[in-house]
Design goal:
GO terms for molecular function: GTP binding; ribosome binding. GTPase that plays an essential role in the late steps of ribosome biogenesis. This protein is about 35% helix and about 20% strand. It has about 425 residues and is α/β, with parallel strands linked by helices. The chain is globular. It binds guanosine-5'-diphosphate (GDP) (2 copies).
Length: about 425
């Protein structure tokens, strides 16, 4: 379970610069596979051997210079709700701004650890200007320069030390976790309620197993699992007005702590930006994904067929298109159990381990008949491959010149792998390494 660090502060203080510095290295690895970057406000970071997620909350309310105070307030409240540690960034060039005071006031009331980063301290003589920020009443200050990275090491040492202990999971929590995610009104609670209505499927009701989410333990298809209701999180939230991006923010923790995400889409609205963002959060976290196109009862099948809808979604989620898409209705109860059954299958796909000898027998002939293209007259040879013993499927191919293998070839290998083995709904990683 990874902890969440939120970056807050008014526009232009350097939040995204600092954020990019934190996630840089990790992202390069993950995105080299898919070749795309999508949500630029969320990423994974690692410091002193501790992994954590970073959210640039400013990114979710960006857009204008003259941002409203009420929006900053929401941003900070959201950060307080959704994160474990908060980094509050201010700008030494500008000194204390009334909006900084506003943010500080909110943060002072909180018990969560807050670190005050005074940014743009590029030179020694700017150091003297940092002291005024003690007036914000948030304790120690961390002078940094997000651009060069100076001072960020000390700040991160402190941040990581303040992250909550990684809790050992109880047996109950080790059950597979399926998170029901999606935009407001997609039908998440209706889905869960419909399933709960069929109470013969339920074993027990465990409220608050995790901090916010509501878990329901199911036993179906000879399989025990927890269904995590993220709609419940929203209901409890302080924020009344449910702005779209908050549904993304609020999904983060549930997604991170899940094995499979059941992403519900409202068929009457189509598959839009926020759906894509939530999908991408699941993919980025290497979680299994099942897409439910819900409210299918409301669609006029003359104008929109399932195949058309499905194709449109696959265009949006490319290149990770090997994902089950199921058309449901919580009103007519159409395919609700089917959805669970598929989620169970995706869970199993994600856990599957391919024996090394079998894997070599299957993959090496394919690679031999379609090798990576030669570069500068040099032939690239792959002699051996294996699945790594990692929690999510990762495959390594050992080559004489791995640095010359480009993304299109990686995709070719991934496509072949998906044709042969069933990894439907599961993001996979492929690496080429030196023999
Ligand atoms: P955000 O709106 O808070 O996300 O701020 P940005 O990260 O977009 O940065 C706003 C401006 O401050 C940009 O022009 C950055 O180049 C600049 N900036 C960020 N970090 C530093 C720094 O360490 N030193 C200096 N001098 N400028 C910086
Ligand atoms: P949530 O915010 O994702 O939990 O969405 P809800 O479950 O609260 O559903 C939002 C609205 O859509 C409610 O008025 C539901 O009755 C309605 N709804 C949910 N699923 C369906 C469905 O399959 N068909 C139809 N026609 N309406 C639905």
């Amino acid at each position: 379970m990874s902890s969440i660090v939120a970056i807050v502060g008014r526009p232009n203080v350097g939040k995204s610069t600092f954020f990019n510095r934190l996630i840089q290295r990790r992202d390069a690895i993950v995105d080299s596979v898919s070749g795309v970057t999508r949500d630029r406000n969320y990423g994974k970071s690692e410091w002193n051997g501790r992994e954590f997620s970073v959210i640039d909350t400013g990114g979710y309310v960006k857009g204008s210079e003259d941002i409203f105070e009420s929006e900053i307030r929401r941003q900070v409240e959201l950060a307080i709700d959704e994160s474990d540690v908060i980094v509050f960034v201010v700008d030494v060039e500008e000194g204390i701004n009334p909006m900084d005071e506003e943010v500080a006031k909110l943060l002072r009331k909180e018990t969560k650890p807050v670190f005050l980063a005074v940014n743009k301290v590029d030179s020694g003589n700017r150091m003297d200007d940092t002291y005024e920020f003690y007036n914000l009443g948030l304790g120690e200050i961390f002078p940094i320069a997000g651009m060069s990275g100076s001072g960020t090491g000390d700040l991160l040492d402190a941040v990581v030390a303040a992250l909550p202990e990684e809790i050992e999971q109880t047996e109950e929590e080790e059950l597979p976790r399926f998170a029901v995610v999606g935009r407001p009104n997609a039908g998440k609670s209706s889905f869960i309620n419909a399933l709960i209505g069929e109470d013969r499927y339920i074993v027990t009701d465990i409220a608050g197993t995790t901090r916010d989410a509501i878990d329901t333990r199911f036993n179906q298809f000879g399989f025990d699992f927890n269904l995590v209701d993220t709609a419940g999180i929203r209901r409890k939230a302080k924020v009344k007005e449910d702005l779209e991006f908050y549904s993304v923010m609020r999904s983060i923790r549930a997604i991170e702590h899940s094995d499979v995400c059941i992403l519900m889409v409202d068929a009457t609205r189509g598959f839009e930006g926020q759906d894509q963002n939530i999908f991408w959060l699941a993919e980025k976290n290497r979680k299994g994904v099942v897409i439910l196109v819900n409210k299918w009862d409301l669609i006029d099948k003359e104008t929109m067929t399932a195949v058309q809808f499905e194709n449109k979604i696959r265009e949006e989620i490319a290149p990770f298109t090997d994902v089950p898409i199921i058309f449901t209705s919580t009103v007519t109860k159409q395919r609700l159990l089917k959805a669970l059954e598929v989620a169970v299958k995706v869970f199993e796909n994600r856990k599957q381990r391919i024996p090394t000898s079998k894997f070599n027998e299957t993959m090496l002939p394919i690679i031999e008949s379609t090798p990576p293209p030669a570069i500068k007259g040099k032939y690239i040879k792959i002699k051996y491959c294996m699945q790594l013993p990692t929690p999510t499927p990762q495959f390594v191919f050992f080559a004489n010149l791995p640095q010359y293998i480009k993304d299109p070839y990686k995709r070719f290998v991934e496509n072949k792998l998906r044709e042969i083995y069933d990894f439907e709904g599961v993001p996979i990683d492929i690496f080429f390494r030196q023999k």
